[in-house]
Amino acid sequence: MRSALDLEYRNQNTYLKACKKYNTAPVSTVMRNMNEERISLNHHNLGPTGVKAVAIALVNNVNVRSLDLQGNDLGVEGALYIQELMSENNYIVELVCSWNESNFLDSWTRLPWTRGYPWTCESTRGASQL
Prior knowledge:
Elements: H1 4-21, H2 28-33, E1 38-40, H3 47-58, E2 66-68, H4 75-88, E3 94-96, H5 102-110
Parallel strand pairs: 1-2, 2-3
C-alpha cells in the first residue's frame, strides 16, 4: 500500500513535469496543497497554459475536493482544460471560476459536460442552482 508521502511525491512530480512540458512556472500553492482538500489559486494569473498543468496534475488526484480558479484569465482554452479535468476526476465537487474573461464564461455554458448539472461558475456539483 502506498503511503501518503508517496502519493504526495507522485502528484507533485506530475505537476512539475507538466509545467516543464508546457513551459510554465510551477506555483508553490499547488505544490503545497496537492494532498489537501482545497486548492485556492484565485488571482494567480495562471492563464490557459498554467491551468493545463494544474489540470494534468489533478486528473488522478483523489484528495482535492475544491478548486478555486477565479481571476486567472483562463479563456476558452482554459475552459476546455477544465472540462477535461472534470470529466476525468469525480472527486472535485466544488469549482470556482468567477472573474475570468467573458469568453471563458461563454464557452463554459456551452461545454457538453455542464448540461444536466446545476453548474455555474460558482456552484457545487449536485447542489441546487440559485
